[in-house]
Amino acid sequence: MKALELHPDRLFPTDENARAVARRLYAQIKDLPIVSPHGHTDPQWFADNDPFANATDLLIKPDHYVFRMLYSQGISMESLGIPAKPGVEVEQDGRKIWHIFANNYNKLFRGTPSRMWLDYVFKEVFGFEKILDASTADFYFDQINEKLQTPEFLPRALFEKYNIEWLATTESPLDDLRHHKKIKESGWQGNVITAYRPDPVVDPEFEGFAENVKTLGEITGEDTTHYAGYLTALKNRREYFISFGATSTDHGHASAVTADLSRSEAEALFAKALAGECSAREAEIFRGQMLTEMAGMSLEDGLTMQIHPGSFRNHNAQVFDRYGRDKGADIPMPTEYVSALKPLLDKYGNEPNLCIILFTLDETVYSRELAPLAGHYPALKLGPSWWFHDSPEGMRRFREQVTETAGFYNTVGFNDDTRAFLSIPARHDVARRMDCNFLARLVTEHRLEEDEAADVAVDLTYNLVKQAYKLGV
Amino acid sequence: MKALELHPDRLFPTDENARAVARRLYAQIKDLPIVSPHGHTDPQWFADNDPFANATDLLIKPDHYVFRMLYSQGISMESLGIPAKPGVEVEQDGRKIWHIFANNYNKLFRGTPSRMWLDYVFKEVFGFEKILDASTADFYFDQINEKLQTPEFLPRALFEKYNIEWLATTESPLDDLRHHKKIKESGWQGNVITAYRPDPVVDPEFEGFAENVKTLGEITGEDTTHYAGYLTALKNRREYFISFGATSTDHGHASAVTADLSRSEAEALFAKALAGECSAREAEIFRGQMLTEMAGMSLEDGLTMQIHPGSFRNHNAQVFDRYGRDKGADIPMPTEYVSALKPLLDKYGNEPNLCIILFTLDETVYSRELAPLAGHYPALKLGPSWWFHDSPEGMRRFREQVTETAGFYNTVGFNDDTRAFLSIPARHDVARRMDCNFLARLVTEHRLEEDEAADVAVDLTYNLVKQAYKLGV
Amino acid sequence: MKALELHPDRLFPTDENARAVARRLYAQIKDLPIVSPHGHTDPQWFADNDPFANATDLLIKPDHYVFRMLYSQGISMESLGIPAKPGVEVEQDGRKIWHIFANNYNKLFRGTPSRMWLDYVFKEVFGFEKILDASTADFYFDQINEKLQTPEFLPRALFEKYNIEWLATTESPLDDLRHHKKIKESGWQGNVITAYRPDPVVDPEFEGFAENVKTLGEITGEDTTHYAGYLTALKNRREYFISFGATSTDHGHASAVTADLSRSEAEALFAKALAGECSAREAEIFRGQMLTEMAGMSLEDGLTMQIHPGSFRNHNAQVFDRYGRDKGADIPMPTEYVSALKPLLDKYGNEPNLCIILFTLDETVYSRELAPLAGHYPALKLGPSWWFHDSPEGMRRFREQVTETAGFYNTVGFNDDTRAFLSIPARHDVARRMDCNFLARLVTEHRLEEDEAADVAVDLTYNLVKQAYKLGV
After folding, report:
1. ipTM above 0.90, yes or no
2. pLDDT exceeds 90 at position B473
3. What number is the average pLDDT over the span B226-240?
4. Percentage, residues of chain C above pLDDT 70
5. Do the domain assignments include residue A2?
6. What are phi and psi of A331, to 5 degrees?
7. How far apart are alpha carbons C273 and C261 in whole angstroms?
8. Are C336 and B334 within 8 A, CB to CB?
9. What angle do CA A260, A262, A268 make, to 5 degrees?
10. What is the pLDDT of residue C473?
11. Residue A1 forms part of a structural domain
12. Are the C-beta atoms of B333 and B311 separated by less than 8 Å?
C-alpha cells in the first residue's frame, strides 16, 4: 500500500528560482475564501441539508470526467451503474462499481486533473493516508460512506468548512427555485444563489421548446405566443431570479452566433420557432437574436452575461439513446467569435456597464479572437479556461495566450463549473497554484515585480470574480 | 573540423531537478526493443538482403525532409539528383550531390529533427567523430559507401543490431507481397510484416482508380464491377495480408470524412466512381463510406485501423509535373474530426474490440477534438504526433495537449513512419527522450509519482504499441 | 515611489543553466545596429526634424496598443483625446489625459508588451528612476515635454542614437514621397526609405478605390481606365518608389486569397471594380489577382513582397463612426493559406529570385501551413510574429512552431511594424532577448552547439533581415 501524498509544491515551476517565488505568492492567496460564481451543484443539498449518499453515488455516477475515461477504455456504462433510460438494466451494487473504479483509478487517470481533484478529496476531505487501489478499495468505500453520515459531512457543514463565500447554482427560467426559497427562509447564512440559464426557452432545438415557452407563459401570466409577451415573460423571470440572489445569466449555445433582427423579423422567426418550423440555420439565428435581447435586458437589470458556446452535445448516438444527456459524450467544435458576435457588439459592445463573459472550448481563439476582442470592447471579459481545459496545462495556455493582449484585468478569475461539490476546494486550489506558477515565471523573467504579482494573485483569486459577477459589491 | 557529439542529456529538461528525473526514467527504457508498427521501409531490402547503395542514394534522394529544406533555399532538385519524370535531366554524380548537401547541412538544418536524426546516424551507426561539413564531405561519402558494402551494414544485420522486434511496411492491396513471401520463406526470424493501405482502390481520385479496381478483381477472382464483389475482393486481400503478418490497415484520405450510406446509395456511388463521374464531394463521400466499410471489416477480422487525414498532396504543380508524387510538396490542411467521424462512430464507435487510431497534421485538434473523442469512445485511440510534428516540440505539444483529457492509455506509443531505415533508432530515441522529458516535468511538478512515471514510460515505449497493433499479443 | 528597474536578465530563461547561455548569446548581439525593414513611422519627422510634440501626443494618442487597453476598461476615447471625426468633442488637455494614463498604467498593462516597451522608453530614453503612477505623473509629463525640445531628442538625433542602420516607412502609390525627397536632398545620411503599399489602388473595397485609381492615372500619365494602363501605372510607381530606396511592397488584404485569371477575366473584373459593382467575393478575387500581378512585377524589379492578411478592420461600428480607422478595433480572423496561395505559387512559387514574406495573425497556421510552405517553396519566407503576437509569448510560440519544419533560414528576422518611433529599440531588444531565450533552450537541451547558436543569433538579428529585404546588399 502506497502512501497518498499531496506535495506542498505541486504545480509550481520546476526550477528553484521560479518555484520559490510561486511558494511566496501562493502563501498569500491559499486561504482566501472561495468564490464560485458558476457551477452546477444541486441547491436541494443546501436546502434540505441531508447527508450525501454513498461513495459511488457521490463520486462516480455524477462525474462525467470519471466515467468517460473508464468508458473510453472499454468499461461499460452498465457496469458503472450510470443512470439509464427505462428498460436499460444497470449495476445497482455500489461496492461492485467502486471496485471497478478503484482497480483502474491509479493507472488510467495518470496525468489528468481528475486524479489531482480526487486525490485532494481523498486526502484533504476524507483524510486517507494510502492511495486508492484494489487493496484499499473496500476501506475507502466503507470509510467514505461512514463519514458521509456524520454532521461534519453534511452539505452546509462542508460549505462552511470549505470557506465558500459565494456559490451559484444554475437553473432554468421554468424552475420555481423552491430550494433557493427554502435556503433563504431557513435563516442559514450560506450565500447559495441561483443563475438564470434560459436555453430551454430560447433554443428552438431544445427538447420541448414550444412546450417550455407555453409553460413560461403560464408561470408568468404573460402571453408567450407573441414575441412581446415572450420577452416580457423572460424579463419577469430574470426579476424573480434576482430576488433569489442571481447576478448572472448563462447561455450554452452550439455557436457564438448573435443577431440583431428587426422587430418584425424577430417576431416572424419566433412564430416559426414555436411552430417547430425553423431550419438549423434559422434556429441558430433565433438563438443569436436572444443573446442580443438578453444583453439588452442585462443593460437594464444588471445581470452579468455568460456565453458558453462550442459544444457538440450528445455526440454519441447510442449512448444518448440508452442513457440520455450529459454522459461524457459532448465534444468541442471549432468556434468562431469575431463575425459571430458582431451584431451584438455593434449594439451593446461599447457599454461600460454591461459585463459579458466569453468562454470557449476552442483554444485557438484565445490569442486570435478572444484576447483582441476583450482587450478592446468595454462590455467584454474573458472567462477562465473551461471544461476540458480546466486543467493545469489548459490554465497555463490560457494565461500565456490571453495576457499579453487582454491583460489580467479583462479576465474574471476562476469558475469551478462543477456538480462535484466535494471537489470544489481542490479545483480552486489547482487554479490558484497555476496562477502562481504563471506569475512566478513572469517575476523570474523580470516581466513583473513580485509585489505586483502578489497583487495580481489576490485579484485573480478574489477581487476580479466578485467585481465581474457583482457579488457583495 | 569540429567534433560530432551526442550529449547524453539531449532533449532532457533544462533545470537540474527535472533533468535528473528524466535521466532515471530514460535509463529504464533506452534499451527496450524497437516496435515500429507503421512505416514505409522497402520489404525488398529484407527479402534480398543486398547492400544499400551509396550515401547519396540512401540518405538524400529518398528523404523528403532533407531535400525539401535544400529546395526551399533555392537549391534545385535537378542538382540533387531527385528522380524525375522522363525527359528531365538530373544530376547523376552522387559525390557532387553529397557535396551540396554537406555544404549546407550544418547551417540549414539547425533546430530541425533531421539534424538530430542524421547526426545520430553519423555518430552511432557510422561512427563519425567530426561533424559533416565541406571539409569532411569526401571522407563521409567514402566511409559510408565503404561500410555499406560490409556484412554489418546489410539490411538484416542492421535490423538485428537495431533490436527491432517488429517492423511493418505498407503495401497496396494490389501488391503481391512477393518480398514478404520471400522473407517468410527465407527462415530469417526478423518480424517484418505488412500493412494494408487500400487508397489506390478506395479513392476515386487516386490515379488509375478504375483500372486499379479492375486489377483487384483479377487478383481476387471477384466481380469488382459491382459493389458486393468489390467489398468481397477487399476482404479477400485483407485475409491475404493477414497471412503475411498484417495487423493493421492504413488510410490516407484528404479529410476525415466518413459516411454510412444505404446499400443502394453506396452501390450507385461506386458505379459513378468507376465511371469516373464523381464530383469532388462525391469522391470524398465514397472514401468516407469506405472508411466505415473498413471499420466493419476490422470488427470481423481484427485489423487495427489507422486514419491519416489532412494532407494536401502534391501542392506544387510544377514539381509534380517534373518529379511526380512525394517530393516534399505535401502541405497540411485544417482538418475537422467531430462531424466528419460521426457516421462511422454512430455505427462502430462503441465497439471495445475495435481499435481505430487517429492521426492529424492539424495540431489545433489535439485538445479540441481528438483528446475528447478518444477520451470517450471505446473504439478510438490517438496516434503519436505525425510527420511535420514528429519532432521534439511536436511531441511536447502532443503530450501537453492530449494527456489531461485522453490520459496516456488512449495513446499508442510511437510510430517512426519512415522510409529512412537507418534513422529508425534515432527517431525512437527522440520519442523516448521527449516522453521522459514530459514525464519528468509531471514528476517534478508533483503531478505523478516517479514510480508511476517509470511505469508509464515503459508502456509508452513498448506495451501500448504492441497492444494497439496486436503485435505478439 | 517605487524604483523603475530594467533587469539585465529580463526575458531570459528562469533556470540558471539556460539563463547563463542566454546571457552569453545576448552579449554578442545586443549592440548590433537596428534594421527596421517594415514600419509606420512618419517620414516627415526625419524630413523636417522638428521636435516631437508633448508626452500625450507622442506616447498615448497614436499608440493603439495603449488606448485599446484603457478603452476596454471603460475609459472613454473622448477622455483620452483620441482624434475624432468632425463634431465629436474630445479632451484637449494633454496633462489631464496623461493623468488618466498614469493612474492606470502600472496596473492594467501588467504582463503586456506595452508595459515592457514603455518602461524601456521611460528608463533608457528619458532616464526616469521611479515608476510612472499617479504620484509621478506630473513629473513625467513635464520632464518628457522638456526633453523633447532639446537637440538630443530631435528625430534625427534619436535615429542616430538608436543606431538604426535602415528604417522603412510605408506609403501609398498615390503619395508623392515629398518627405523622402526632402530627406534625400538634405544630405542627412540616415537610411530612411519607403515601402510600396498599394492597398488603396488594388482593393475594390478600399474607401475611394475608383477615385484612387483615377488619381493614379493622373500621377503617372497612364490610362488607368483599362487594365493594361492600370498595370503600367502600378509599375511606374514601383519604379518611383525604388528611386527613393524602396526594396519592398506590402499587402494588407483581409484574406490570403490569390488568383491567376486569364487576361480577359482580369480586365472584366477590373472594369467591375472601377464601376463599384464587385461582390465581396469578386473583390477578394481581384485583390488576389493583384497579389499575383505584384509577384510578377517583383520578379522583374526585385522588390521583396510582404503579405499581411487576416485582420477584420474596424470591427467596432460605433468607434469607426466616431473616430474612423485604426482605433484599436481591428480583430484577427481565422486565415487559410494553403489553398489561398496556390494560384500565385503555381505561377511563381518556384522562383528562387523572388522573395515573398508571409505574416499571420492566426497562430494556428505556424506549424500547419506556414512552416511547411516556407520549408518547401523557394519563393517563400516567414515574417516574424506580428501585431498582437509581437510579444514575448508570441515570439516564443513562433520559434517553437516554425523552426523544426522551416528552420531558421526561411525566416527573416524581426519587424517592429510600429509608428511609435521612441519604442523601436525597446521592441528590437525584446525580440533579441526572446531569440536568445529560445536558442539558449536549444543549447541547454543539446539540440544546438553554443557557437552555432551565436551564429544564428547574429543572423536572426542582422543578416537575415538585410538579405530578405535586400538592404545594402
Report:
1. yes
2. no
3. 98
4. 100
5. no
6. -125, 135
7. 15
8. yes
9. 110
10. 73
11. no
12. yes
User: Percent of chain A, pLDDT > 90?
Assistant: 98
Rounded Cα distance, B316 and B329, in Å:
6
The closest CB to that of B110, out of C338, C446, C452, belongs to: C452
A1 falls in which pLDDT band (50, 70, 90)? confident
Residue whose cell numbers read 538608436? C162
| pTM reported for the whole predicted model | 0.98
Are C113 and C131 part of one and the same domain? yes
Residue A236's identity, in one-letter code, is: N
pLDDT of C58:
95
- Which of C348, C366, C367 has the highest number of chain B CBs within 10 A, making it the mutation to test binding with B? C367
Looking from the CA of A132 toward its CB, the CA atoms found within 13 Å total 32
- The span from the CA of B240 to the CA of B246, in Å, is 9
How far from C211 is each of B397, C218, C277, C314, CA to CA, in Å?
A: 50, 11, 14, 22
Q: What is the pLDDT of residues A16-39, one digit of tens each?
A: 999 999 999 999 999 999 999 999
pLDDT digit string, tens, across residues A256-281: 999 999 999 999 999 999 999 999 99
Residues 6+ apart with CB under 8 A from A213: A201, A224, A230, A274
Residue A252's pLDDT band, with cuts at 50, 70 and 90, is: very high
Query: What is the greatest pairwise CA distance in chain C?
Result: 70
Are B119 and B259 part of one and the same domain? no
With CB atoms and an 8 Å threshold, state whether A15 touches C16. Answer: yes
Residue A4 within a domain: no
C46 and C64 both lie in a single domain: no
Check residue A432 and give left, alpha or beta (phi > 0: left; psi -120 to 50: alpha): alpha
**DSSP summary character for residue A196:** B
* Residue B189 lies inside a defined structural domain of this protein: yes
Residues of A in contact with C316 (CB under 8 A): 345-346, 349-350, 376-377
Q: Select from B98, B129, B152 the last residue of a domain.
A: B152
Backbone angles phi, psi at C360, to 5 degrees: -150, 150
Q: Which of A470, A354, A353, A380 is nearest to C68 (CA)?
A: A380
Is there a single domain that holds both residue C144 and residue C180?
no
Q: Please check whether residues B42 and B69 belong to one and the same domain.
A: no
The span from the CA of B466 to the CA of C7, in Å, is: 52
Q: Is the pLDDT of residue A473 over 90?
A: no
Question: For chain A, how many structural domains are there in total?
Answer: 2
Q: Contact A405/C107, CB-based, under 8 Å?
A: no
- Could you give the CA distance from residue C172 to residue C252 in angstroms, rounded to a whole number? 12
End of a domain among A124, A153, A182? A153
Is there a single domain that holds both residue B70 and residue B34?
no
The span from the CA of B357 to the CA of B366, in Å, is 13
Contact B314, B325 (CB under 8 A): yes
Q: Output the domain CATH number for residue C406.
A: 3.20.20.140
Mind listing the pLDDT tens digit for each residue in A303-316? Answer: 999 999 999 999 99
Same domain membership, residue A204 and residue A113: no
Q: Which three cell numbers stand for residue A347?
A: 449594439
pLDDT at C355 (0 to 100):
98
Regarding whether A330 and A259 lie in a shared domain, the answer is yes
- Total Cβ atoms within 10 A of residue B451: 10
- Reported as a single tens digit per residue, the pLDDT across A286-337 is 999 999 999 999 999 999 999 999 999 999 999 999 999 889 999 999 999 9
CA distance C130 to C133: 9
Residue B437 distance to chain A (closest CA, Å) = 12
In B, which residues are within 8 Å of C333 by CB distance?
none
Average pLDDT score over residue span A42-61: 96
- What is the reported pLDDT for A440? 98
Range of the domain at C36: 16-50+154-468
CA max distance for chain A: 70
B126 in Cβ contact with B143 (< 8 Å): yes
Which domain CATH number covers A68?
A: 1.10.2020.10
Among A11, A74, A116, the residue with its CB nearest the CB of B352 is: A74
